Queue: 4 jobs
Job 1
Amino acid sequence: MEPLDLLIAAVMIALAAYLYLDKKNKYWADRGIPFVKPELLYGNVKEMNRTVQMGQLFQKFYNELKGQGSFGGVYMFTKPVAVVTDLELLKCIFVKDFQYFHDRGNFYTEKADPLTAHMFNLEGNKWKMLRNKLSPTFTSGKMKMMFPTIVAAGKQFHDFMIEKVQHESEFELKDLLARFTTDVIGMCAFGIECNSIKDPDAQFRAMGRKLFSNQIPKPTVFLTNSMPSVARKLGIKIIPTDISDFFMNAVRQTIDYRLKNNIRRNDFMDLLIQMRNPDETKSGEGLLSFNEIAAQAFVFYLAGFETSSTLLTWTLYELSVNQHIQDKGREHVKDVLGKHNGQMTYESITSMKYLDQILNEALRKYPPVPIHLRVASKDYKVPDSKYVIEAGTRLFVPVYGIHHDPQIFPDPEKFDPERFSPEEEQKRHPYAWTPFGEGPRICIGLRFGMMQARIGLAYLLNSFKFSIGEKCQVPLEIDAKVGFLSPKGGLWLKVEKI
């Protein structure tokens, strides 16, 4: 082929690619739906997880699109996604019209990356079956059974802190809190003494640290978001092989040990073992393959330790900045414990209502999962509008943006637990605060997560005073490179024994 012919062919290919991408970027404009102007290849997410955290980026979209309708459009690379800006539409998506929005549309691949096929990602009947089977694990009755295990981990954490403050007056707490929640999850999900509190390099903690520091390459993010079917055919993996192997082996050893010794612990792993198919390579009729069991144990670990430790991290930061709230929280803990002979019982912990207000306000200001995802399973006529959300369209609920909307939460940057007094909660739209989601896909581990956060906070406030350390930046910066809402550089506080 002549050089001129090669040049013409290259120009024609480039022009065709440009016209294709330009057409993709006109999806919202062609339908008359308000949208944020995209760039050619990146859409609206060029900054995401590089210079701007995903929750903060979608807050910007929310603020730009709000008031122009109940939703607007942006682009994840070349893929059009809807951003929900109206709480009544949010109610329809989460509950009223759930049959249209039962899936999250997250990328997973059971064959190449089996740990990604967990309940958070699963779709359709498989998700429904698992949800129904696993829900009994998280009832208040099961929480009472697991309560002594969580308290024991809390006591161990408390004793470690007492020893630590004798030698150091200022130290980093984010990793310490993650070690506490790792120990709790290790016991409740795997029946394993992780010993992360005393050993920061314990295997479970090391794997958790590595998992959240793992940066997924940009081409992989592009492919899994824009062309998930292609990514599956190519066998694209999101979880590094060494992490996957570690958790697979941990689950295998736990199952084998319990079956061999006929051990029952009334925990999460017990329920999974009861659903185990004798032929572990297959699933169906309410039974799970080994890979499916491993995936559920993995997501319980993943969500259980990171979200709770992040919640406690932001809570201690705000209590250090707002000493009067910290003092009130401490008085509340001591008052409740005084009525229960000084004991951390299930009844005393569940009576600490002001701690719930503190934690709920931290979840408002710093929701660990700053965006909820859904995908339309079929065409959906948006109520009170002329618009249709077409089947296959992904919807992003900008939780962080809604939680920082001054029309919903006045003076949103102020940390104020009184927002969650019964009287104030009744004044608000019921879908204004959704850190755990809502409806049939609400976080299944909500009770468990709040229980371990409440126990950890009660132990800490009862015995220690926290204040801003010399190494702590105020305001604390959100780490742009992490999917969860996490503080950059950890949390350095002064800690004094009371």
Job 2
Amino acid sequence: MSTAVVVGSGPNGLAAAIVLAQAGVDVTVLEAHDSIGGGTRTEELTLPGVLHDVCSAAHPTGLASPFFRALPLAEHGLEWLWPEIDAVHPLDDGRGAALYRDLDRTVEGLGVDGDRWRHVFGPLVEHKEALVDELFGPIVHVPAHPLVMARFGVNALLPATVFARRFQDPQTRALFAGMSDHAVQPLTRPTTAALGLMFGTFSHGWGWPVAKGGSISITRAMASLLEKLGGRIETGHRVTELPQADLVMLDTSPDQALRLAGDRAPWHVRRSLRKWRYGPGTFKVDFAVAEGVPWTNEKAHHAGTVHLGGEIEQVNAAEQAIAKGRMPERPFVIVCQQHLADPSRSNGDVHPIWAYAHVPHGYEGDATEAVIAQIERFAPGFRDRILAQAVRGPQAWHDYNANYVGGDIAGGANDPWQVVMRPRMSPDPYRVADGVYLCSASTPPGGGVHGMSGFQAAVRAVRSL
């Protein structure tokens, strides 16, 4: 029987392990922490009984993932829950566009821009399965659905600021900007429209659900399935040299993969991975809040995700500053209210509020006040409702998870080149050396809880046997 070792127990590592175990390979997963999960852990970070997702929160790519949908994760305890509204982007005047799972309801709420929104997303949602098949693998490939990919790709290559001009109302442009800014790049750069198009399609196609009981439930379900297939997981095992096995799957950053693979990797692979660039950092604050957030915008009270940054020009200005290494006074902030879909996260009327700001790579300052001020901007009185808080800046993120270099939780900068060539120009970008594969968020299709990086890498690893 062939053997495999998977380094890292995040969703991609576990996905790789499941694929290998399904193929009859003897699999062991090694995790440096005392608990499994990578970016899908859930803990009581503030007060007893208040459950906070440590990293990932809402899951726009969760049900969009063909791999996740093909697994019997519900039989292993995973239950998806949806808020009434996927996302809202409030403005200073109290208005704010809402992204509903229902395309018709979204269109109705967008007024003058409703027909344009339908014209953009209707065809993409109609062909969502084909689109996902194209997007959730290496960019360098022959499209199986060329017409669908062409319709998406022509617009996806645009800067978000250019694409958003087709909308008349500032609140619609801001809604698209908020989705696009998950790229953590200035919205004037090419390809930034891609995430806005993708997240909008995923919303209307599957929604932005949360996992009941916390994101850790995704990990536990995958681990339970892996163990049923005969796989093993060892925690508290930090890997410092390449394990001995027929296959080694690395759910790690490229720099860690280089250290482990060493001279086993061909020179051109080593050269490409050395050039890999990491993106801006994340400064996260978890709040325990009495009675929730007092939003000025009524729809925000029902939204699982709230994007805070004002109009598209303000969002872009904040990202421009970060790209130059400066901390903006008003950073783009993402707030998640998972308790609206999953009340089990709360303790009575004390609710967990998940928030993070985009900050420069390796930022060493304290952005706590900037995060609170940005929430207060759209929810006056929020500060008075805070009962406890927990803070994690870029260095703390790196200490927590070595994959989060400089606080970059996306596995690398989403600039135009790295979006296309992730992490190198190759039809098989996962292969590092003979029998060694990189399967982290630094490989296609990139960040998010979908398991597709692990799936794609493991499929290729199995073929090599």
Job 3
Amino acid sequence: MSKIEESDPRVKAYLYDIGYHKWSQVHATVNRIWTMTSNIAKSLNAVTKDARELSIVELLEYMRTLLERWTNEKLLKAKGTFTYLGKKYNKELEDNRTMSLKLRVRASTDHIHTVINGVKRYIVCYENKRCSCGQFQLDELPCAHALAAFRHKDESYENYCSPYYTRESLLSTYEILVNPLPDESKWNMPQHITEEIVNPPSGEKRQSGRPQKQRHKTYDEVNSKKYEVSCSNCGVEGHKKRSCKNAPKKK
């Protein structure tokens, strides 16, 4: 917050006004997990930018083929994964495991351990799948402290990961087929659809973008143009002094 305030104090005030639950993962009303952003909407808008100029049928076909390609790519990637977790989450787990190697563990009970990192201490609870650092319960993936405790107890991490991160879940997500569309000559169209006439929208087409505001001149502005002061260089009425040929040259 101090860094944000240094950049622009208004941003800090705005974040406080809208509430923590809208931008903080810890205070979110639901478990958001990993990302709180609207970038996916912007990405889809960028991908379909040119397609918006197409007709309705061609636009729908473009979107269908886009989903067909994405689903196939994700399915092939999931099939090529041979770890318990998906590629993204398995990498995060490996990074946490590397950090856990330098941590010391002291057991308090069978399911509660104290993990020591230098002068800092963290409490890991197996039973509730929680760590005092907050990362374990928020990400639903073992943090470095939890992995250090697992290693001390010789416990497997697999039972403490969200099932949504597993390879099986990825395969189930993308197993739904996006059916290919046959040639238009093979379409079985109902008669009431083929006979329906759709007229173009009536009225003048509005130009894209924000309409320009036309500022109306006042009566005094119009008259001031009509009766301009004579040029002091040549004496011509309404002549601009700066553009006058008789104006003295600057030394």
Job 4
Amino acid sequence: MIYYRNESKDPYYNLALEELLTKDETITDDILLLWQNDNTIVIGVNQNTIEEVNNDYVKAHNVNVVRRLSGGGAVYHDLGNLNFTFIFNKNKDNVRNYPLFTKPIITVLQKLGVNAQFSGKNDLEVAGKKISGNAQYVYKNRIMHHGTILFDVDLTILPQTLKPDLTKLQSKAIKSVQARVTNILPLLDQKITIAQFKDLIIEELKTTKGTKILDVSPELVAKAQQLAQAKYRTWQWNYGNSPAFNLENKVYLQDKGTVDVKIAVEQGIIKTIKIYGDFLGSKGTKILESQLVNQPYNYQIINQLLNESEVKAVFGSNFTKDEIIRILIK
């Protein structure tokens, strides 16, 4: 395994670097990145940015907003949050295997006396409170798994930056986003810095994976800066155009995620369709959406067009074709 040092706090550069390392077919080694973003909301690839962020707060406090390649929900990062990224060769054992990738993080936390456990579809929790969320992205034969670690985040800012999804909170009988999360630092008997915590993760993987430490090459830095400018800093990538819709349905399924479907239908034909949500499939929604455009808005037709394996690739292994069809056709 290679650990690439990355001290950048620029979210646009950091996500560009992640993408380049994932898609570089000359690299076959496993990769580890540990990185931080300053004052940033990171949006899942399938989410509607306008509906997720508190735009008044974002503008007033100059919060960065950037969309990532993977699914899942929106998260707020400050310098008290540590992000980790693993990039591996894809195989049948690691695709959608979230516990496998989070195991080193859990091991380090347990050595520090924090009883962290994998929970739900993509979280790490301590005593029922979330300390980490995770997501994955697959490119050809490579899989990127990344996650957040709430080490010492300002939890008073967190609920101000995001609009809570009331369908999720109501189903869990929780009154606020803030009530669901906690930091690691207060749980430690012996206090350490986030830099020391990062070093412990590196040491764990040096022991178990023989990890070697490298600097990002100047050439790769330049490419990441170019990609950040061309893609990750653009309004089109982070917000995108929002066409008019006349049919909408938003459903939260326990332990699976939220699916928010918006469809424009004219004379019984689907003219535009956009599927948003925090589901965790390894395949984006665009191919499925393109299959449905110009098709009749009809149960039998949609049932014929969709297949079970495609649904699981787009939405996650816990979803079924019937569940998605019931969301598409109210």
